[in-house]
Amino acid sequence: MAIGDAHRRPERIADPWGARTPYSRDGEWPVRVDQQLASGVEPDAVGWFRSASILHSNGDEIDIAVRDGRIVGVRGDRESRVNKGRLGPKDLFGWQANSSPDRLTRPLVRVDGELRETDWETAMERLVARSKGLLEESGPGAFGFYTSGQLFLEDYYTLSVMARAGIGTNHLDGNTRLCTATAGESLKESFGCDGQPGSHSDVDHTDTICCYGHNVAETQTVLWMRMLDRLHGPDRPGLLVVDPRPTPVAREADIHLAVRSGTNLALLNALVHELIAHDWIDRDYVEAHAVGLEEIEATVEGCTPGWAAPICGVDARDIEAAAELIGTTERLFSTVLQGVYQSHQATAAACQVNNIHILRGMLGRPGCGLLQMNGQPTAQNTRETGANGDLPGFRNWANDAHVEELARVWNVEPAQIPHYGPPTHAMQIFRYCEQGSIRFLWISATNPAVSLPELERIRGILADERVFVVVQDVFMTETAAFADVVLPAATWGEKLGTFTNADRTVHLSEKAVDPPGEARPDMDIFRDYADRMGFKDKDGAPLLKWSDPEGAFEAWKECSRGRLCDYTGITYERLRQKHDIQWPCNDEHPDGTERLYAGADFWASPEACETYGRDLLTGAPLEPVEYRALNPDGKALLKAADYVPPDELPGEERPFTLNTGRTVFHFHTRTKTARAPELQAAAPGPWVELSTSDAGSLGISEGDIVEVSSPRGSIQAPARITGIREGNVFVPFHYGYWDTGGGRAPGDQPRAANELTISDWDPASKQPLFKAGAVAVRRLAPADEPAPAPTNTASAPAEEVAR
Amino acid sequence: MKLGVAIEQLAAAERELADELSAIGERHRTEHDVYHVTRTLAKMELGHIDALAPHAARFDVEIERGSNGGSSLLDTVREKSAELVGRRPEPGLLLLRDLRRLHTLAAGVSIDWTALGQGAQAATDTDLLAAVTTCHGETLRTLKWTTARLKEAAPQALTT
Questions:
Q1: How many CB pairs under 8 A join A and B?
Q2: Would you list the DSSP string of A188-254?
């Protein structure tokens, strides 16, 4: 059976990364401008509007082409420091979703059990009536807000002020909890504050690239193009990859450690053991700039490669070789993503990568970058503005001075801002809904009915009549189908605002076209609600003092003043002239900051830090006095934890470990990418990846329909047999039910990966473990055709790779 | 020398704490973090009995290893009851009560470690002291977790 027919696919579907432009160490990454226009459209016959991508987290700068009031294409920005003109397949084709005929164009309210179209006045008044009644009856603790990693900074900041100081609830989080919470938490634990130390440009200068659980080829295609251009250039850097799947990155690696799921920390403890044993550490740097060396030495004492090898299921010699690569390089560049963040002991493992950079003194210098990546385009802003379970401006909820400062910025009493405990994380918000103590849940730009773990449970919560559910989105999602009120929102290209990528690069995104129908920008919807609710500051003036995006941005700048994420030197005008600026940007750094911590100037003093830290095993926050004793001088913190086995291990009944994730052609629950024909055709339906040996022992051939089941539920999909690690079963998480014709529900054909996932999360970051839990697999029916999985990605059939 | 008696009592207190961690975790299975963290902590506390075992042998006292263990049937009943009450607001108050119970047990174990540590120092028993230092540090993590989780749960349980 022939798998794949490359000749019929569009060029950048067949080759997602495009042609190589090799360059050498310390060289300039060449420009390569990628462009995609609707057929018959000429580049000089359109208007161009500046923006950046919101279909992944790389922050690629894009010009949007507009003709006759419609988006007709995109072009990479050659001036951009992030992408130098390049675009990935999702950007080249995804813009078509904007003009999809099934956009939400009018508000909907539930009448007699059915959603019916209405006007904004009716919808908003229903929201407000319910809110006022509930506030009176149960207080702010009955309100929960669950937002996104795809809105703009101005939207999040408006929401954050409205929820935290207007309603006064502690229950505000983003779906960033699912993708980037561990990045933020590990940075806070190690450096006292969120904020990426490194920069994409470190690829240009490095000698060694380490990708930990980071399939960069599919999650950030343009960053991978940059790495590939170095890897194929004159002085190739070394490449270490930790990933159970044969990703395109792993195929380029010098050392590929396909570890058993849930054992990242065992591996990393062994790597750090080797660095210490061989004295591959910068003792002067550690002495001057870090605390915790003794603790980390004690923790990794017995963690030899021989100890870790059977736990991780890799060869001890490969661990030794990996440690030597890391330990002897002059310039180390590390990236981390979901393979770590969504796996067992996530924060402890991510911290151990930070520790490697601290121990080697490799921070803040060209080529010595550390990127705890983001999974979403604007996740950085969710984190900065406090829409994600932190206080705005990386402020510390346990530090009264920080809360007072925030109260001054907002002109409210400090007591109006809940800070008696850590802001409530998403899984706990849904738990409070389940309990019935949260009774008003406002979901913006995210689709929890497909993206949260254990979907049967989540659907039950969303369907519970006690919870009034508001959904603000662009399309009628599986989640919106449960809503009491649906609010149609404008999206990328239809509203003005800013957003920031993982390496702190701030982009301006212009309004290129009008939103369809009555759809409104998210910020306007939040503002409208706040006005109707009558939220006031302590002098009786409106709480929200801005009415347009630029006003919101200026207000945010004041909130960020003096913090690590200082935006005070940035204006819309500057962003229009200079393409992209990395924060902090202020009087001290007027042109922004390429790398943090160049002078080991960490943001970790007890007065400045965003957190006092947590116990990585239990998640219990440290008390302020403990932190003062531990780190009085604000140094970097070497934090470590012992490896413990995962919570749900495979056994006789369910012998495999579940691994869920992305493919390069889709984003999230496909609300946009499935509405771009080229992307949809590239990966039209779900599949289940099995190793050659597991498929063999189960009698499963390519394309056979299989059932995967866990204690939570089961799914059915065709099998793809790949070079994935034995015992690991991969299912893409993109596929829900809005386009299955079953009324946005699984019916008798469940296919969403999260039917299977476990409700379990990292104790410190509270990030759910989407790459965990035990599953069984059985063959249901023979194949008519190969699985609909891409053939040029981590999902490539084993036989193709062998060829 | 009464160190043997102290070890015996401490081992019994550790087992009670571990068993209660497991039982309360099962009861709050719908509080998924409570369920998973209590299981991790129960294993950790049981490990302390193993750490004490060689010292108990030196002082000629016998300590029981492992957990008393609830029967699996009982666990199933607890799990089912957790699912049944999972959708009502009262579990918030029940959780506060159970966290208080774990907190007082962990505090008892912690002060027992303090006593044993003082004894070990007075007897210049450095091996025992080393074991006490490690295990006591871990029990303090349980104690801090019960406090932290209660602080997190109380506002919602008491105001909504």
A1: 82
A2: HHHHSS-S-S--TTHHHH-SEEEEES--HHHHSHHHHHHHHHHHTSSSPPEEEEE-SS--HHHHH-S
CA-based nearest residue to A665, from A735, A730, A725:
A735
CATH architecture observed for domain A108-168+381-579:
3-Layer(aba) Sandwich (3.40)
Cβ atoms within 10 Å, residue A251: 14
- pLDDT at position B71: 46
Closest CA to A268 of A375, A358, A350: A350
DSSP code for A162: I
Q: Where are the domains of chain B?
A: 3-159
CATH of A195-377+601-637, one of 3.50.50.60, 3.90.1300.10, 3.40.228.10, 3.40.50.620: 3.40.228.10
Tell me how far apart the alpha carbons of residues A619 and A156 are, in angstroms, rounded to a whole number: 26
Task: From A189, A349, A360, A328, select the one nearest A269 (Cα to Cα).
Answer: A349
- Angle made by CA atoms A623, A603, A399, in degrees to the nearest 5: 35
- Nearest CA to CA, how far is B120 from chain A (Å)? 22
Q: How far apart are the first and last CA of chain A?
A: 15
Helices (H) and strands (E) in chain B, counts: 5, 0
For chain A, 803 residues long, the average pLDDT of each consecutive 10-residue run is 57 96 98 96 93 95 97 96 97 97 98 97 98 97 97 98 98 96 98 97 98 98 98 97 98 98 98 98 98 97 98 98 98 98 98 98 97 93 93 97 98 96 96 96 98 98 97 98 98 98 96 98 98 98 98 98 98 92 97 96 97 97 96 97 96 98 97 97 98 97 98 98 98 96 86 98 98 98 95 91 52
* Closest chain A residue by Cα to residue B151: A421
User: What pLDDT score does A183 carry?
Assistant: 97
The domain A656-802 having CATH identifier 2.40.40.20: the answer here is yes
Whether the predicted pLDDT of B80 surpasses 90: no
Residue B90 is predicted with a pLDDT of 77
Smallest CA-to-CA distance from A771 within A761, A779, A781 is with A761
Residues in chain B: 160
Nearest CA in chain B to A423: B152
Say which DSSP state A453 is in. S
What is residue A773's DSSP assignment? -
Determine the distance in angstroms separating the CA of A499 from the nearest CA of chain B, rounded to an integer: 32
Q: Which residues pair with A507 in a beta bridge?
A: A499
- β-sheet with A440-444: strand ranges across: A114-117, A108-111, A485-488, A468-473, A440-444, A143-147, A172-174
CATH 1.20.1260.10 fits B3-159, yes or no: yes
3-state secondary structure A408-446: HHHCCCHHHCCCCCCCCCHHHHHHHHHHCCCCEEEEECC
- Please answer whether residues A763 and A174 qualify as being in contact, where contact means their C-beta atoms are separated by less than 8 angstroms: no
Fold of A31-99: Phosphorylase Kinase; domain 1 (3.30.200)
Residue at token pair 């059990």: A113
User: How many Cβ atoms are within 10 Å of A48's Cβ, its own excluded?
Assistant: 17
Residue with tokens 């039917």: A755
Domain spans in chain A, listed from the N-terminal domain onward: 31-99, 108-168+381-579, 195-377+601-637, 656-802
Question: Are A427 and B32 in contact (CB < 8 Å)?
Answer: yes
pTM for this entry: 0.96
With b meaning 16 or more CB within 10 Å and e meaning fewer, what string describes A676-694? bebbbebbebbbbbbbbeb
Which candidate from A428, A435, A617 shows the least CB-CB separation from B88?
A435
For residue A586, what pLDDT is reported?
A: 97
| DSSP H or E run through A695 | helix A692-698
Q: What is the identity of the amino acid at A95? A: W
> Could you please report the per-residue DSSP string of A483-528?
-SEEEEB--TTSS-EEEE-TT-EEEEE---SPPSTT-B-HHHHHHH
**Record: contact B36-A760, CB cut-off 8 A:** yes
